[in-house]
Specification:
The protein has a domain of 230 residues. It has a two-stranded antiparallel sheet. By secondary structure, the chain is mainly α. It is globular, with a radius of gyration of 30 Å. The chain has 26 helices and 2 strands.
Length: 621
């Protein structure tokens, strides 16, 4: 294992190479495509575990002020890519505690998803393409994580975005899937523009895009420049992590295959925004305005998305809005300065949310529906799926002693210390989380099965990954001190009062959700009692229609006006005007073509005289 630490770039090279192999084989690679993807994920996991072991062996290393590295740097290397004067672009790798933990998350979830997909995607005509994209994603995400500069991070950032686009639109024959892919691509590009502007500002101010070089110069850069650059990076993070107001793409991304949702849109890619902020934390420490942006977006997302999840009938949409909400917890913690708590919640959330998405995939596979009102009683037909789902929702709701209890309470304590008013909103969101968790569980797994429902348990290739992910979802909370130590920080003890309030809200919310969803009839009755409020939540506040009216349509109108002025009047006018000028000049010149030799002789004589006069005049000077 230690030998792998010398070559962490293999976590990028092997998956990308195997993705190319699968793509080149095409339909001839049906038998080996899942094996190639499994090798890719296993390579990432092996390097991650060797990195974890090395960082742990180095012992506790206190965070160095102004350094991007958290914990011991156990492997580092750099390649100069481009240089111009004093400015240079380099791409390389650095493995510290943050890298090791994040890479482990990528490796574990990727391997679980690959194994699960072998059963879930069996028989799909895009089988080879699917596994090739999974391999490419694993390599791209690894590049984003191990990069020692913004250059490498940005390349990985864009590659995972491309993989997300291709996998959301995997079933491109469906108009809804194709539209969802385009929506995700365009929405995240808005955030990426912010990220790119931020990188340009940092490069211009420091002459480098290396993490160490940039952060070493933060103290010498004008505070306004630091603030603007950090806000731009925050916008990029918000787009990738589906935070308000750039959140609307994530629920539509559920059009892709369910295992993809577990890997990309729950556990890894959407967490890249949190990882970015944690990676350059000293920059955000020096920019309070940027942290305020993070906190505001996170708090609105945490509470607003939790409410939207309450009213969804599609089991994947419930989990999608839940993901936006939980990422909101992380962003709020980052804004409050509780970076370690935010990152620990990222790790715990990756485990239990990947578990829940794969369990929902098992439900869809076994029940042939995504509608919670068309399920019911699945606990008897799908006992393994049910048991693992319960572990996931209890962790999500923050019930002790599961992982979500420890990580969520760490976030609540961090925010309560810095922003008590915002913490109240997070406590409310935590209660609502328990409500929608209990509601979805009762509608899917309890009560009377819907008419015509003939559910069955999923094959071992799908249930084994569920059992594997249930282990960290249940027990990861006990490793909070270890994760904090890997990041060079001491773990903060849980505050009894915060824990008591959190557990009380989880129990109260769970009972409320359970009682409000006594089968489809009970759920419908609840919706009827709430009337327009429920309708508004089910439509996610009609946010898409609002954006269409306030942003899209005005932008289209403005672009058409610019086209009419710029293209038709300026461009076409210039071209047509030049043509008319040439035509008139040609008509004038053609008048000289008389065919009379005397006229030509006169013209020649006048020309020669003019040249002689000009020569004499110039000779005087």
């Amino acid at each position: 294992m230690s030998a792998l630490l010398a070559y962490p770039w293999l976590a990028v090279a092997v998956p990308v190479a195997l993705a190319l192999v699968a793509a080149l084989l095409g339909s001839r690679g049906r038998l080996i495509a899942p094996w190639l993807a499994a090798i890719s994920a296993s390579t990432v996991l092996a390097i991650a575990l060797s990195s974890l072991a090395a960082v742990a062996a180095a012992g506790h290393v206190a965070e160095k002020p102004g350094s991007p590295w958290l914990g011991e740097v156990v492997s580092q290397g750099t390649i100069r890519w481009f240089a111009a004067g004093d400015m240079a672009l380099s791409i390389g790798w650095a493995v510290d505690g943050l890298t090791a933990v994040m890479l482990t998350v990528v490796g574990v979830v990727a391997l679980a998803v690959v194994v699960f997909s072998a059963g879930y995607m069996h028989g799909d005509k895009g089988w080879v393409r699917y596994f090739a994209l999974l391999s490419l994603f694993a390599g791209s995400m690894s590049l984003l994580v191990i990069a020692d500069s913004f250059t490498g991070l940005f390349i990985g950032w864009e590659l995972v975005g491309a993989c997300s686009y291709l996998l959301i639109g995997f079933w491109y024959e469906k108009p809804s899937a194709a539209a969802a892919a385009v929506k995700a691509f365009l929405t995240t590009r808005v955030g990426d523009v912010g990220l790119l502007i931020g990188l340009a500002l940092l490069w211009g101010a420091t002459g480098s895009l290396g993490y160490e070089e940039v952060l070493a110069e933060v103290g010498t850069v004008a505070p306004l420049s630091v603030m603007v650059a950090a806000v731009c990076l925050a916008i990029g993070a918000m787009g990738k992590s589906a935070q308000f107001p750039l959140h609307a793409w994530l629920p539509d991304a559920m059009e892709g295959p369910t295992p993809v949702s577990a890997l990309i849109h729950a556990a890894t890619m959407v967490a890249a925004g949190v990882f970015l902020v944690a990676r350059v934390w000293p920059l955000f420490e020096a920019a309070p305005t940027a942290r305020l942006v993070l906190m505001t977006a996170g708090a609105v997302s945490a509470f607003g998305a939790a409410l939207a999840a309450l009213a969804q009938r599609d089991i994947k949409k419930v989990l999608a809005y839940s993901t936006i909400s939980q990422l909101g917890f992380m962003f709020t913690a980052l804004g409050a300065g509780a970076m370690v708590a935010a990152f620990f919640h990222l790790v715990a959330h990756a485990a239990f949310k990947a578990l829940l998405f794969l369990a929902s995939g098992s439900v869809i596979h076994g029940a042939s529906t995504q509608d919670l009102h068309e399920m019911g009683g699945l606990r008897k037909a799908m006992p393994v799926t049910f048991a693992t789902w319960v572990v996931g929702v209890l962790a999500l709701a923050g019930v002790p002693p599961l992982a979500g209890f420890f990580s969520k309470d760490a976030v609540l304590e961090g925010v309560l210390h810095s922003a008590p008013g915002v913490a109240v909103l997070l406590f409310a969101a935590a209660g609502v989380t328990a409500v929608y968790s209990a509601r979805a569980t009762r509608l899917a797994f309890f009560g009377t099965p819907a008419a015509g429902l003939h559910a069955h348990e999923s094959p071992a290739s799908m249930t084994v990954p569920l059992l594997a992910l249930a282990v960290p979802a249940a027990g990861l909370g006990f490793l909070a001190a270890s994760v904090s130590g890997l990041l060079g920080h001491e773990a903060e003890p849980l505050q009894p009062m915060v824990a008591a309030v959190s557990v009380g809200l989880a129990l109260l919310g769970g009972v409320t959700g359970w009682l409000s969803a006594a089968g489809p009839e009970g759920d419908t009755a609840t919706a009827r009692r709430l009337g327009g409020v429920w309708t508004l939540l089910a439509a996610a506040y009609r946010y898409d229609a609002l954006v269409d009216r306030l942003v899209v349509k005005p932008a289209v109108t403005a672009s058409r006006a610019l086209w009419a002025f710029g293209d038709r009047l300026v461009a076409d006018g210039a071209a047509h005007g030049l043509a008319a000028l040439v035509k008139r000049a040609g008509a004038r010149l053609s008048a000289w073509q008389t065919g009379d030799a005397q006229d030509y002789s006169t013209a020649i004589a006048v020309g020669v005289a003019a040249m002689l006069a000009l020569t004499v005049w110039l000779g005087r000077w």
